[in-house]
Amino acid sequence: MTAELVRGQNHALPGTRLEIRVSAGKPIVAGATLSDEKRTVRGTSWVAHPGAPTLPGLEVSQQAAADHRLAVDLKALPDGVHQVNVLLALPVGVGGPVTFGAVAAPFVAVTGLDGTEIASYTITDLSAESAVVALELYRRKDAWKVRAVGQGYAGGLTDLLTDQGLPRAQELATAINDAVARGLARSVATPPPRPADEARVRAAAQGHTAPGQPPSPPEPAAEPAATPVVPAQQPGDGGAPVPQHPGDAVPPQPGDGGPVNYTHPRRQAAAPPPPAPTARPAAPGQHPTPVAGDATGWSLEERLYNQVWGMFEDLARTAAAYRSAVDFADSRMEQELDKVLSDPRSRIGDTGDAARAAARTRHGDLVDQARAALDRDLAQLAAEAEVVEPALPVAFADWSSPVWQGYRAPMEVPMALRLGGLHLPERPELRIPMLVRLPLERGLWIDSGRSGTDSLADADQLRRLALDSAVTHAARLLASYPPGAFTVHVIDAAGTGTSAFAPLVTAGVLDEPPATGAAGVTALLTRLTQRVDLVQMAVRGGVADALPQDLDTGEQLLVVNDFPHGFDDRAVTRLRYLADEGPAVGVHLMMVADREEAAEYGPLLDPLWRALLRLTPVPEDHLADPWVGHAWTYEPPAVPPGSQVLGHVLDRVGAARRTGSR
């Protein structure tokens, strides 16, 4: 499970042999310093840089490059080393950018030797700095941790090394830059932008300025986050304000020499992928033909996942640019009209009418210019969605996709799961798949209440729709895991969901019938809380092999229908415990509930609702991304009317569980 860090956050390292991957939009210099327990660098022999790339337990790149891989063996470091500082700097005197504010935000990831990502950090909010301490790996007692630092220095390497206590820092900085200059001829070139992104850049640059560098989205989300990201903030939970964009000017990016790049830095922040298909070149004046899987990643699944998130980010950004341009046009027209009204000489008569007409004409021109740029971006995104959607694997695909007809139980867990679709009012038919990483990091709450929805359905219809939605989510989760690796439990205290749960029961994908009555609720909650306790104690004590042989250590999902009916105070306490502690050890909640019906518990249940990702059984604009703060409309993953795909998939899952095969 990857930890997406923000500045100052730390994360435990599970091993001592690591790789640190750095991605940036331009060639940069990567290095590292070693510090003792007093955070002191004892001399130049404790600095790894392109002129001296190897130290005991540490190796860095010998050249400036857009992508780096640093090898670290924490056990092999010299005696007395308690900290490793990862440094990034822009090369001096080579004609490139001179500040990090002119390049895409650098992305740093700590991985195991097998490539499994442990922690990542996008270094945002850099402007005039030309050197930065990206990460620090530090020892706490007998364990090592990683911390996101992001400390920049406008004075470059000299100021950075001086701040770390190195004597003659200027001489060492000069030596590093000389070494980079000697190796620059063979440095790795900046990765070329995607043709589709180039088209978006050209379209977006005609009438809008670029948004400010967005913060890394928190998890969820996301999401995503990203982490991020899933975009999953409730209204009022906070989010990045939409930046203001003048609609009649396109200032160049500092140090760029060209139009603004609208691509979010995280869209090309992964390590270099294996060769992927590329879009066919377009004729002059036309958009290139998009291709599914042309994002970065090591596998087609990862490339498609990154491409979907890139589409989400591009749609968020182009909509933010359009809305800000319209706001600017409105504000400008109001100012011009106020100026006309404040002058008695132009308040009435032909002069005033002409001034007001001119203001409205300029307003219309700005809005038309912004709308044209938006339409070009949306058309390209729609074309990309048309080729991406049919190429999505089972876990990412909509229920209407033909890929479900050939479903077979997977051999391994996919990297993400589709929970529905997202769209914005600028183009409602353009749906972006809502993907969340697996295993789930938070539970799900299918809201069966009427709060916040404009649906004409009555309360009983909403409850039934919510329960049907929960069943489809549970079926998709079961279908995404290998046979026996995911278990679903159901609490239906009053028995009101018998018909809705029938597909799960009939297909044999449940290990036991839904728990009913107070006794059934208590027994199931007791068993799951005991499992959480046992696994937590085993993990903390380092004796995971001592768990009982009959304990199911696979992922668990508890579906709770019609909460809080059938729950007493003790059962509610256990449910809260599962929501808080369960996800870390593979026990997840899916609540089908109306929050208003649980109002009698007062603020006692507030932490429960906050711990869950709220989804709705009907379309509703309740999800807010923390990047630009849009209110996204969530579209639940409905099975097409008359389709038998849900029963077909559940039958396959049940058969695979019984035989233990695909």
Give the key terms.
662 residues, alpha+beta, twelve-stranded mixed beta sheet, five-stranded parallel beta sheet, 20% strand
What does this molecule look like?
The protein is an alpha+beta fold and 662 residues long. The protein contains 12 helices and 21 strands. It has helices spanning 156-163, 169-183, 195-204, 300-342, 344-347, 349-388, 459-480, 502-507, 517-541, 569-581, 606-611, 645-659; strands spanning 3-5, 10-12, 17-35, 47-48, 54-55, 58-59, 65-73, 83-89, 107-112, 117-122, 131-140, 143-153, 416-423, 432-437, 443-447, 486-491, 555-563, 587-593, 612-615, 620-624, 631-635. The strands form 3 sheets. Strands 1, 2, 3, 4, 5, 6, 7, 8, 9, 10, 11 and 12 form a 12-stranded mixed β-sheet that branches. A hairpin with a 5-residue loop joins strand 6 (58-59) and strand 7 (65-73). Helix 9 runs parallel beside helix 10. The chain is globular. It starts with a strand and ends with a helix.
Task: Set down the secondary structure blueprint.
Layout: E1 3-5, E2 10-12, E3 17-35, E4 47-48, E5 54-55, E6 58-59, E7 65-73, E8 83-89, E9 107-112, E10 117-122, E11 131-140, E12 143-153, H1 156-163, H2 169-183, H3 195-204, H4 300-342, H5 344-347, H6 349-388, E13 416-423, E14 432-437, E15 443-447, H7 459-480, E16 486-491, H8 502-507, H9 517-541, E17 555-563, H10 569-581, E18 587-593, H11 606-611, E19 612-615, E20 620-624, E21 631-635, H12 645-659
Parallel strand pairs: 1-10, 15-18, 15-19, 16-17, 17-18
Antiparallel strand pairs: 2-12, 3-4, 3-7, 3-8, 3-9, 5-6, 6-7, 8-11, 9-10, 11-12, 13-14, 13-21, 20-21
Helix pairs in contact: 1-2, 3-6, 4-6, 7-12, 9-10
